[in-house]
Amino acid sequence: MQIVAVNGGPRRGKISKTIMLLEAFLSGCQQGGAEVETINLREKDIKMCTGCYSCWIKTPGQCALKDDMKEILLTLDKADVEVWATPLYFFGPTALFKNFVDRTIPLAEPYIIEKDGLCTHPLRNKKAREIVFISVAGFCEVEHFQPMSQWLRFMEGRGLLQIRAEIYRPSSEFMSAPPLKEKVDEILAATQQAGREFVQTGDISEKTMQSICQDILPDKNTYIDLANNYWDWEIERSKKRKSARSEG
Ligand SMILES: Cc1cc2nc3c(=O)[nH]c(=O)nc-3n(C[C@H](O)[C@H](O)[C@H](O)COP(=O)(O)O)c2cc1C
Asked: Fewer CB atoms < 10 Å away: N or C end of the chain?
């Protein structure tokens, strides 16, 4: 199985919880026998769609913009499954990720058809791409992913993609808190297991899913108190650094 991951997070390295989860999932996929490749959108030159519709009229299937998106679409074309990863930004994907999705418009035809009672555009190659979706969010409730999940499911309903799995990890920023390391290791081991299961069985078990989105803190008040104390601490630390710089 050829897997191509698309990471729409702007952060680099282990500070990114998207990368933490994505790397764990992909290493599980590799253990299961898949070949994996990752495209980090932040490293690419991907201009915004200008809405010129050249890709529908003048040069069907080819975008008029000259940037890295052409190569990205060629890479994705080789994938059996795409892993889409983005942090939750204002209840949706990052702008970087949404921009990538917008730029896949050459894959669709201009013509309008009706599917399950609603209008859509058919795909040029008639085959919906298979997607595993991974996201992380700062808030502690999994419900925050609902608008984004609904967006994906709506695209699936219109025949634009096929969702193979959705992995959502709330309280993401606590994943770098040293006292929670044991739980975080469990979550990452479960995410790796999810990758293995996906490649080997085509599915991710309920038990593995529950382990990935298990509560990391005992209750919501603890989450709120710790998060607010963290921001106070960071703000104070920044003030102290600033005054140390101005004194020295
Ligand atoms: C601009 C911005 C918007 C965000 N919006 C949300 C949000 O709507 N809901 C939420 O739970 N977390 C939100 N967060 C928190 C991020 O989802 C969280 O910090 C996550 O770990 C970021 O992913 P990363 O660690 O891979 O960078 C937001 C963060 C930023 C910077």
From this structure: C
